[in-house]
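[Solved] Which block belongs to which protein?

Original post:
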Amino acid sequence: MAKGRSASCTGIWTGRRPGEAILKAVERIFVSYTLDARKWTEKLAAALRHQNFEVWADFDSLAGEEPAPQQLEKALDGARVYVFVFGAKREVGALQDREWQAAIQRIWSDPSRLVIPVVLGPGETPPFLRQWPPLRFASARFEPQAAQQIVEAIRSRTRTRQRPPAEPGKDWLERLRLIEDTAKRWKAEQAPVLKRDV
């Protein structure tokens, strides 16, 4: 097993290094990000792990490859907190489509999951996440206090979770359509279509 990986979730959940004590059980965090926010998100994941959170992001996939669908499903099912990071350029690929749709399905089916949108620089949260108040950071340059603000948001929002309606129905289908539309629009604004760097 690679250094820094835990045995849970077939090696894709990463937390503290083997042998390091975990102070207490913590919530697992699933992180999705736009391509232009990858470096910021990598630093965020490291900072959260340093605070004993278990974090999954696609850049932790084995051998740097795109995660297999079953890895993504397992990661989403195991997480209680979903963090979505949006860079100013909003560069997206096919993987974001899959992550966002699968995450929204789980949020609707289990409203106890916590959603934290993060916006770097100017811009708005995409329509399918506007129900949840975002954390905003003026710069795309990662600062350690950003991780602390996210931890504080997890702790405070865990006590007062915002819940989608109990019956998703038309709203749920509309959110899935908004995910698809947003991803298509952001991709169309890119030339050429970007692929995730590994």
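(Second protein starts here: sequence line, then its structure tokens.)
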Amino acid sequence: MNAQQLSRRLSARKIVAQRLATNLIVHCERAASGRNGKRADPAFWNKTDWRHYLHIACRSPASSRLPALYRDIGEIENTLHEADNNCTLDKEISAMTTTAHSPETIRIRELNDAFRRAPSKHGQLVWTSGISILPFDEQLAIIAKVKGFDDFSPDNDPHGEHDFGSFDFKDEKIFWKIDYYDQNIEYGSEDPADPSQTTRVLTVMLARES
């Protein structure tokens, strides 16, 4: 597995770990505070509230999945660090730069473009909260701009995969990005050029949410 594939796997695992950790904290805090808004602040929790918090923490599926994820993240980071120390990472980055239009990259770009133009057919579309609270007609306009985006350059698309873009909409800057997961959306895809191994997720957000 080369440096680019390792970096993708590392990014995907970090995204999943962050999402699991955030959901775990939210669920534990809800269990502790209940429906009483006055107890939303942990500073006002009593022993019973903390017991509820720990009860959910110990029994949540995220608690068993997170250690393995963090272990994988550490192992991948160590591998990348060792490659850097051996002066091999720079060579691979250089090779990636010079082969930006390799058959694999072209295939990934084609799949990304097709997915972005019809996300419901080729993967999943995710809104952030900032997008979801906008009026429906503005949401449709933003999606139309994402689907029709073609302002790619070496600056915003250094690998030539068409996996990120940004544009202005009214008074906001909009970001969109494509991430590559496995079929179960648990880990990074082993090969983003192979649709049978990959679930693409298109995330649309306000730039200030990133």
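Accepted answer:
You had them paired correctly. Confirming on the second one: The helical segments are 3-33, 47-59, 61-85, 89-98, 103-117, 119-122, 129-132, 136-147.
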